[in-house]
Amino acid sequence: MGLKTVVDGEVVTISVIGCFDVSAYEEFKEICQRHLTDTNQFVIDLAQASYMDSSALGMLLLLREKTLGDKSRVRLVNVGKEVQNVLEIAQFNQLFSIELRSA
Question: What is the largest distance, in Å, between two alpha-carbon atoms of the chain?
Fold first, then answer.
C-alpha cells in the first residue's frame, strides 16, 4: 500500500497504490492537512487501488468534511469495478464526483 502525491497549482492528486485501508490513515490525513486550503481541489486516483475498506471510506468522508462538502473539490477518478462496488454500497455516488476507469 502506498500513496503518491502530485500538486499542480490548486489540484492535489493523491494516487492510491494497492490496498486503501487503515494502514494509509496517518499518511492520508497528513497529506490532506498539508495541502488543505480554501480553494484546493483533491483528486483521489484509484487506478492502482486493489481494495478499499470502511476505514478508507471514513478517510474520504473526513476529507469531504474538511472541504465543506463541496462536491467539486473532491473527485474520485479511475475507479475500478471492485472499488466501485464498495462506493456504490456506501452510496458515495451521492457525496462525491466518481469517474470510472475506462475499460
Answer: 35
